[in-house]
Automatic annotation (TrEMBL):
It comes from the Bacteria. This is DUF2577 family protein. It holds the Pfam family DUF2577. It comes from Lacrimispora defluvii. InterPro entries: DUF2577.
Length: 97
């Protein structure tokens, strides 16, 4: 039984070390280029490592000659929810919080 428990422990530790996918919160330091301060580690990440989804990009349309802003985009100080992928090789901003 001890061998099985040890193998399970090794598998769990290895899986955690891979750190394939995780979510967390960050603060926007700069919108262009996108720079985030990760709350858990105080690590600053910038483009191209930090990327935005369409949910947080600036969007505007012209209706009858007037511009209507649909999404204001990100600005410094905004709190965001991110998805960390590939052991921190990419930080994908999902939405503002």
């Amino acid at each position: 039984m001890e061998l099985i428990e040890r193998l399970q422990s090794i598998i769990i530790d290895t899986t955690r070390a891979l750190d394939l996918l995780d979510t967390g919160y960050a603060t926007v330091k700069s919108a262009s280029p996108l720079t985030l301060c990760i709350e858990a580690t105080r690590l600053n990440v910038t483009e191209p490592v930090a990327v935005m989804t369409d949910n947080v990009r600036y969007k505007a349309v012209t209706v009858q000659g007037e511009t209507v802003v649909i999404n204001k985009g990100l600005k410094p100080g905004d709190k965001v929810l991110y998805l960390k992928a590939n052991s921190g090789q990419s930080y994908i901003v999902i939405s503002k919080v």
